[in-house]
Amino acid sequence: MPLSDHEQKLLAQMEQALYAEDPKFATTLTGRQRGVGSVSRALVAVASVAVGLTLIIVGISIGQLWLSVIGFVVMFGGVVFAVAAPPARTVPDTPSRGGSSRSGPAPRAKSSFVQRMEERWERRADGGGL
User: Fold this and answer.
1) Which residues does 102 contact at the CB level (< 8 Å), separation at least 6?
2) How far apart are CA 44 and CA 80, in angstroms?
3) Could you tell me which Pfam families the record lists for this protein (predicted)?
4) Distance, CA of 65 to CA of 72 (rounded, Å)
């Protein structure tokens, strides 16, 4: 059953709010795109595994250990290539709708948890307490 126009607009607003609030999480939820890129990655991986396996078998049959090692490396590389995620996509721009002039929350200072803990430790060591 297709979504109504109102439901589609509501869904678009929710997606925009998610991208505005936490773009990294939103990108994680969308996952990687399926399509030509993933098919070509799979084909390259299968081909490299097949070539690697062939090199291993040929290397063993003619008694050349170095050829078998190269085949293993090629095969292992194909498996890693198939399993590894492609480079991360950029988060699309989400223009605000509805003409609201309200901006998002003010960006927080770039202090990580570890940095805050180090500052507390230094203050405590200096006798400043928490």
Assistant:
1) none
2) 11
3) DUF3040 (PF11239)
4) 11
Domain boundaries, the chain: 1-31, 36-86
Tokens for 20? 């505005």
Contact 74, 55 (CB under 8 A): yes
Largest CA distance in the chain: 74
The model's pTM is 0.42
Owner of token pair 């390259």: 44
111 pLDDT more than 70:
no
43 vs 78: CA distance, rounded Å? 10
Per-residue model confidence as pLDDT tens digits over 26-60: 677 666 555 456 778 888 889 999 999 999 999 99
Nearest-angstrom CA–CA distance, 110 and 27: 21
Measure the CA–CA gap between 124 and 128, rounded to whole angstroms: 5
On the CB side of 61, CA atoms within 13 Å amount to 7
Lookup: tokens for 52: 């690697």
- With the CA atoms of 46, 50, 52 and 58 taken in that order, what torsion angle do they form, in degrees rounded to the nearest 10? 180
